[in-house]
Amino acid sequence: MPYFDAASAAPLHPVARQALLAALDEGWADPARLYREGRRARLLLDAAREAAAEAVGCRPDELVFTSSGTTAVHAGIAGALSGRRRVGRHLALSAVEHSSVLHSAAAHEAAGGSFTEVPVDRTGAVDPAVYGGALRADTALACLQSANHEVGTEQPVAEVAARCADAGVPLLVDAAQSLGWGPVQEGWSLLTASAHKWGGPAGVGLLAVRKGVRFAAQGPAGERESGRAAGFENLPAIVAAAASLRAVRNEAAAESGRLRALVDRIRSVVAERVPDVEVVGDPVRRLPHLVTFSCLYVDGETLLHELDRREFSVSSGSSCTSSTLVPSHVLRAMGVLSEGNVRVSLPPGTAAADVDRFLEALPGVVAEVRERLGAPVPAPVSPGPAASLVVDALGRRCPVPVIELAKVIGEVAVGATVTVLADDEAARLDIPAWCEMRGQEYVGEEPADRGSAHVVRRLS
Questions:
Q1: Rg of the chain over CA atoms, in angstroms?
Q2: pTM of the predicted model, to two decimals?
């Protein structure tokens, strides 16, 4: 069964498996002890730290191992903000950061601090000048991912780091998605990553803090990992994480080129074979293994289930696959279509034949889901009567409000409007996206008795 969700968790690398099994036999003792077994465990821990630091591009004594990438983010942000509290309590971050960064920002605000979300363009990238403009005299820390986990767009880390350096603000880079593919651009002050993203075992994160960065670890003091990560080290998992990071880095040049070609094929073939689809993210400045696209008139949860029935494992940022029914914050910040969203992230070793099978199956699956939902069939559009229309889609979830809009747009005259009443969060994103894809005008959102009224003007 083809597994196409490496951005969530990559399959365990063979080197990680071998290192894990060996370390279970050799690295079970306390590395802080001076007897023989403890010394052997310490040698393994030191070697793993040196290997990880080499991959990150820092000194071994600047890097600690945490219990997860999320823990590394939380510890890094909290420690940097506390260490620079005399400067101020302002935090800057991009609008498409991982949820762990957003949760840290929310907790910081609840404790009396403040934060600014820097907007992104339609590809998901920040403008370094705009990011620099968000830095203030009281900014204690800035955060920017190296590459986006949902759409694969790489961020201009070096350019933003230069702006941060000019402002005297340290930059924390979340490198979870990119570290397995190569080193992060220069200029960062703190860096975090997660082993299960590159084929290491789950439960291992990295936190690197450059010398000279003011940092005050939060929470009860601990004796291990320079006091920045409490608890007994999971040494076998750490050894496996470091070994697999070195292995995937050695394979990265050849494998990234091969996977980039497969993703390029997905991007072009999906746009050719699937009507009413938007391929999102930067087509060039992106991770080599990841592509995201959104399909009009498709229920994302049903689409994923149908692909799973055909033995393809993919993920989605669509609100239809979420228990909260709220669209992905990444897609929302980009202003792109969220309904029927599919993220394909290929693990190393993915066979071209599996990608071809996926591309053969996808158009039929999308067509089946659209037919089941009663999506409109493309047909010649003729001018309708002059009267405007109101569509009541209250209580109906994505993609129904957009489907109902598409069904009636041809019934009004050019220049007339259709008002869609909806209380679905996705409508705020997907109706404007539909207008852009269809060449119609999104007039705006107005308050309604329940939910909102989305007004669309027919232009053609």
A1: 24
A2: 0.91
Annotated catalytic residue 58? no
Report angle CA 224, 230, 233 to the nearest 5 degrees: 65
Q: Which two tokens stand for residue 142?
A: 């800035």
DSSP symbol at 197? G
Which residues, at least 6 apart from 306, have a Cβ–Cβ distance to it below 8 Å? 365, 368, 369
| pLDDT, one tens digit for every residue, the chain (460 residues) | 799 999 999 999 999 999 999 999 988 888 989 999 999 999 999 999 999 999 999 999 999 999 999 999 999 999 999 999 999 999 999 999 999 999 999 999 999 999 999 999 999 999 999 999 999 999 999 999 999 999 999 999 999 999 999 999 999 999 999 999 999 999 999 999 999 999 999 999 999 999 999 999 987 777 677 767 877 889 999 999 999 999 999 999 999 999 999 999 999 999 999 999 999 999 999 999 999 999 999 988 889 999 999 999 999 876 555 555 578 899 999 999 988 999 999 999 999 999 999 999 999 999 999 999 888 876 555 556 657 889 898 888 888 999 999 889 988 989 899 999 999 888 888 999 899 988 999 999 888 888 899 999 999 8
Of residues 58, 164, 320, 398, which has the active-site annotation? 320
Q: Which amino acid is at 142?
A: A
Find out whether 408 and 401 touch, Cβ atoms under 8 Å: no
Residue position matching structure tokens 């949820």: 99
Distance set, CA 21 to CA 67, 113, 339 (Å)? 19, 45, 43
Q: Rounded CA gap, 169 and 132, in Å?
A: 10
- Report yes or no: 80 and 215 within 8 Å, Cβ to Cβ: yes
Euclidean distance between CA atoms 456 and 300, whole angstroms: 24
State both tokens at 251.
């394979």
> In angstroms, rounded to a whole number, what is the distance separating the alpha carbons of residues 91 and 116?
6
Tally DSSP H helices, then E strands, for the chain: 12, 14
CB atoms within 10 A of CB 325: 14
Alpha helix segments (H runs only) across 321-408: 329-334, 352-373, 400-408
Place of tokens 């403009």: 133
